[in-house]
Amino acid sequence: MSHRMRSLLIGVTAGAILGAAFAWVASDNDQDGEADAVTAIKQLGPMDYFSLGIAILTLARQFGGMLKKA
Question: What is the spatial distance between Cα 58 and Cα 62, in angstroms, rounded to a whole number?
Fold first, then answer.
């Protein structure tokens, strides 16, 4: 498998896992029997999105560091 294909596969997998985790957290707000992901996302504030963005960038930097070591 080429280096580029391996990088794409890792990126797609990491994105899918991150997306699934975000959807799971957003829909985990099941208080009265109705888990509405849109309502959960509306409850997030600007700082929540900012910290999520910083976490994603940190994760990407760590992946880059791991790939450089390999």
Answer: 6
